[in-house]
Amino acid sequence: MSEAFSQGESAGESVIASGYVGQFARLLEQSPDEAVLQPLTDEDFIRYAIAEGKRFQDSFEIIALLKKSYEIYTGLKALRMASYCAFQMAKEYFSLGEIKNAKQYFNYAVSLYRHEGWTTLLWEILGYLRECSRRDGSLKEFVEYSLEMAALPVSSGDSVAYKECGPAGPPSFQKREIIQKEVVGLVAVESGFPSSDVEKNLRITGDSPLHLEIDLVSPLRVVLLASVAFHEQAVKPDTPAKITVSLLSHLPALFEIDALDVQFNQSECNFTIQNSQRTPSAVNSTSQDSYRVESAPALVLSTDKWLRLTYDVKSCR
């Protein structure tokens, strides 16, 4: 939607309401000789009204118009247009600092963009959601949105014809790497991070560890995939068996794992794969007390390359 109304162009224009229900709105143009009513579609009327609201920076008027359009499109099951209106509403709320309302409509739009794979739009809207979570101190959401952005298959060429990129700026491989480094630094509690008063709300402490769940419907499936395969079709009790654990990362840079727990419904079969190049943390050591510990030369995931680890499963009854 493009609205460009200069001061000169809008000086002699005004919009009058419909004379009766269903009639098109009319644009009144003043000329030296006569005033002429020209047909104006409802769509043009909405465009004009929003442009006028932007010209006078009247966010509440813009939100009211967009909300009405959003409700109409939702009723018509026109999900793409409803999502577009929700996205525009959310940006207006964001500009007003109303983070709760902004997140509500951002979340409505992002679900469709994820489902249909609009990666450039996803980059923009996830950038807004990431900034919302940063401002209201939602650590878990901040990490989730950051990881999802870092794993998006976008590049600098995707934004050539798309001017609006949101708080994250134009998409690029380098920007994805920066986001990954930032969130990994936050999770690892590296020195020097966080650096601002807002980011101090996102600090991870030992009393409140961060848990992210990646299930079959999680948006984080674009970030990391894991699978476990038995080598035999059937395993008898007390019979050793082999399994292969496969991991895949879509993050732009190398992703290192300290330890990996493999759990079964029989706890005696559980074991931990420890990265031999990393010192076990206190959290990992606690969780490994009852686990058999296996060692791996390295647990480093490269972009779009499977890492496969094969181990024995012992004493499963």
Automatic annotation (TrEMBL):
Residue stretches making up the Trafficking protein particle complex subunit domain: 8-151
Signal peptide range in chain numbering: none
Top-level taxon of origin: Eukaryota
Pfam families: Foie-gras_1
Protein name: Trafficking protein particle complex subunit 11 domain-containing protein
Lineage, opening ranks: Eukaryota, Viridiplantae, Streptophyta, Embryophyta, Tracheophyta
